[in-house]
Write a structure and sequence with these properties.
- The protein is an alpha/beta fold and 326 residues long.
- The protein has 2 domains: 209 residues, Rossmann fold (3-Layer(aba) Sandwich), CATH 3.40.50.150; 84 residues, DNA polymerase, domain 1.
- It is 40% helix and 13% strand.
- It contains 13 helices and 7 strands.
- A 7-stranded mixed sheet has the order 3-2-1-4-5-7-6, sandwiched between helices.
- The chain is elongated, with a radius of gyration of 20 Å.
- Bound molecules: S-adenosylmethionine (SAM).
- The site of S-adenosylmethionine has 21 residues, from helix 2 and strand 2.
């Protein structure tokens, strides 16, 4: 696994401004990864502050541990799914936190390691588990699901328009042997779409959505996100800030709807009317940032000014547009 120096945290300045960590506060980084965001948030909470970092991947936690070792605040890292965050906080004797960040998806080291099976760019085992001790791999799903189930996974998780054709091609290919590698799967997707991946015009690889959909299914990513969203109000102190960074529309829609629902229940104030996206400079220097969307909410009752001088959605002139948050 590569060291933390190869990893650039997305939207880092925007995260720091909007999450506005104060000295002595308790911060939960639910996806600590290689500790990029956590390092800055930990510096902000300072001596007397507490930084709790979760990740499903023990390799990521090792890198984060080294990177965060010099922080003045108390640092506690746990291998866990963030769906269990509330239980972990209880074990640590923490009742409420002041800041939560979740930067969803996979980190750059996971993508770069062919053995983890997340990427179609290099051949490797069809694995895709964030937690390497989890039972089900992508190969298990690809070889076990019915054609219809495969098509549903690919369509509903990633809105792949050619999901049925792809599922059929995989299903047919299984007759002559199990599909066990990322290279083989990527090849089958290209065959299903009738494209040659080497001569393709689009910058997006034809297998992108299929790989995303399978990764989401292997790790039950939507299930984890839903459980986190459900638990968050009970974990946040009054005035606490929660920032969620997503990388595709299925996730972003879930987050947007949850924030609006919580707002109507009087639990949240929505800070970001539109999702915050990367600047042109960041998009150029860090391609992963191109699809990142950050949404931030405050736990009510929240007094005073919003972090970073941001205007509350409710106070914005176009109040009526609230239900149509982008
Ligand atoms: C985009 S990376 C986070 C990068 C991190 N913010 C940084 O600056 O280094 C996402 C991380 O979340 C972890 N992850 C994804 N889903 C998770 C879940 N449900 N629970 C805990 N960790 C998760 C992945 O293993 C990965 O390390």
């Amino acid at each position: 696994m590569e060291g933390s120096e190869g990893h650039t945290p997305v939207l880092i300045e925007e995260v720091c401004k909007l999450l506005d960590v104060h000295s002595g506060e308790v911060v939960l980084d639910a996806t600590v990864g290689m500790g990029g965001h956590a390092l800055r948030l930990g510096q902000m909470c300072g001596t007397g502050g507490r930084l709790i970092g979760l990740d499903r991947d023990p390799d990521a936690l090792r890198v984060a541990g080294e990177r965060l070792a010099g922080l003045a605040c108390r640092v506690e890292l746990r291998q866990a799914d963030f769906r269990d965050a509330q239980g972990i906080l209880a074990e640590l004797g923490v009742e409420q936190v002041n800041v939560v960040l979740a930067d969803l998806g996979v980190n750059s080291a996971q993508l770069a390691d062919a053995e983890r099976g997340f990427s179609f760019r290099e051949d490797g085992p069809l694995d895709m588990r964030l937690d390497p001790t989890a039972k089900t791999t992508a190969a298990d799903l690809v070889n076990r699901l019915s054609e219809k189930e495969l098509g549903d996974v690919i369509y509903f998780n990633a809105q792949e328009p050619a999901s049925r054709r792809i599922a059929r091609r995989i299903y047919e290919a299984r007759r002559s042997g199990r599909v066990l590698t990322t290279g083989r799967l990527a090849h089958l997707v290209c065959e299903a779409l009738g494209v040659n991946p080497d001569s393709r015009r689009s910058k997006i690889h034809p297998a992108t959505r299929t790989f995303l959909a399978l990764r989401m299914a292997v790790n039950d990513e939507m299930g984890s996100l839903d459980r986190l969203l459900q638990a968050l109000p009970g974990m946040l102190a009054p005035g606490a800030r929660v920032g969620l960074i997503s990388f595709h529309s299925t996730e972003d829609r879930r987050i947007k709807r949850d924030f609006l629902k919580r707002r109507s229940e009087g639990l949240y104030r929505v800070v970001t009317k539109k999702p915050v996206v990367a600047s042109d400079d960041e998009r150029r220097s860090n391609p992963r940032s191109r699809s990142a969307k950050l949404r931030v909410a405050l736990r009510e009752p929240a007094e005073g000014k919003l972090p970073g001088g941001v205007e509350d959605v409710e106070d914005a002139e176009d109040r009526d547009a609230l239900d149509e948050l982008d």
